[in-house]
Amino acid sequence: MPEVRLCSLDDLAPDTATRVDVADHKIAVVRIGDDVYAIDDTCSHGRYSLSEGEVWTDELEIECPKHGSTFSLLTGTPQSLPATRPVAVYPVRVDGADVYAELAVEPKP
Ligand code: FES
To answer: What residue numbers bound the domain in which 52 lies?
Structure first.
């Protein structure tokens, strides 16, 4: 899978989500301590942006701001109703000051 640069590590405020639009993907990038997670930004229950929701740092979950379903940052699986379908998560690599993810499509030149 192609690896795409998402952002700089400094762009990510701790314990929150930042929306990044790259290669036709809308991704919520979450920084918790030194760890970074990438999860599809659009909730599987409705067209709401997960990056506007709260990050649950102990549980490694993000909460949809509309109806409150939480999704695992590790697997994308919903942990509570009403969402029942997972959202995609992407492997992340931090290289120095830059954050990369493996996405399912080729980036545009
Ligand atoms: S739109 Fe996200 S839980 Fe309903």
So the answer is: 3-102
